[in-house]
TrEMBL record:
Residues 25-217 form the Tetrapyrrole biosynthesis uroporphyrinogen III synthase domain. It comes from Novosphingobium kunmingense. This is Uroporphyrinogen-III synthase. InterPro entries: 4pyrrol_syn_uPrphyn_synt_sf, 4pyrrol_synth_uPrphyn_synth. Gene3D superfamilies: 3.40.50.10090. One of its GO terms (molecular function) is uroporphyrinogen-III synthase activity. It comes from the Bacteria. One of its GO terms (biological process) is tetrapyrrole biosynthetic process.
């Protein structure tokens, strides 16, 4: 079985590993990012009617500024983000399963003034007519170098799960740094935008049918029995 490598930051890395192993994938976790809090100033809650949450990290690392916003309902991009929002004391109005743009379709028409709590790297959004949005960057994902055991693993065929465009670019750069042959590796991306950010030269690049971990792991399960590319460069 071709191994699956997960590089997203914690606690997402451990969650993806557990889900992958539950469906009998050979999965290895190497968090190549560390999530850190950013200094930010919370606006007045009176200026908004709801919060858009694209990652649980916004609620784990938002710090004291979150307290002033807790009366605002949260629209969470997925279940993990919804759990983090509730643990931080927020009420979740709706939980999406199709990415941030799809989440906007779940927003109550009465909630026209939105506050987006986000990281340094975030997906651009097209707002519905009549809706306004302000953004506050409350956390950042700091890239880490590949550890030696990951480098050794990637010298043979493997699949790599990509959860963000930032991860795709970092993965490509690290392969160059360590002289890893991309043609031996297959990428499984959460969305076409993420797949595009990885660049060229990979053995295969596949995109999950839906931008969530369940769909990504289902695709990995389909691909894992194939030994994959043997390297053509």
């Amino acid at each position: 079985m071709v191994p699956l490598v997960v590089i997203r930051p914690e606690p997402g890395c451990s969650a993806s590993l557990a889900a992958a192993r539950a469906v009998r994938l050979e999965a290895h976790g190497f968090p190549l990012f560390e999530v850190v809090a950013r200094s930010w100033e919370a606006p007045s809650a009176d200026q908004f009617e709801a919060i858009l949450g694209g990652s649980g990290n916004a609620f784990r690392h938002g710090g004291r500024g979150l307290a002033a916003l807790r009366r605002l309902p949260v629209y969470a991009v997925g279940d993990t983000t919804a759990i983090a929002a509730r643990e931080a004391g927020f009420v979740v109005a709706a939980t999406g399963n199709g990415g941030m743009q799809g989440l906007l379709g779940s927003v109550d028409p009465a909630h026209r003034r939105l506050l987006r709590l986000a990281g340094d790297e975030r997906v651009p959004l097209t707002l519905p007519r009549g809706t306004t949005m302000e953004e506050r960057v409350v956390y950042a994902s700091i890239p880490r170098p590949m550890p030696a055991d990951m480098i050794a693993l990637l010298r043979t065929p493997a699949m790599i799960a990509l959860h963000s465009a930032e991860a795709a670019r970092h993965m490509a750069a690290q392969c160059v740094t360590h002289g890893i042959r991309r043609s031996l590796l297959r990428l499984i991306a959460l969305s076409p935008r993420i797949a595009s950010a990885a660049g060229d030269g990979w053995g295969e690049v596949a995109t999950a049918r839906m931008p969530n971990d369940k769909a990504l792991l289902a695709l990995a399960l389909q691909m894992c029995q194939d030994p994959g590319p043997r390297g053509r460069d």
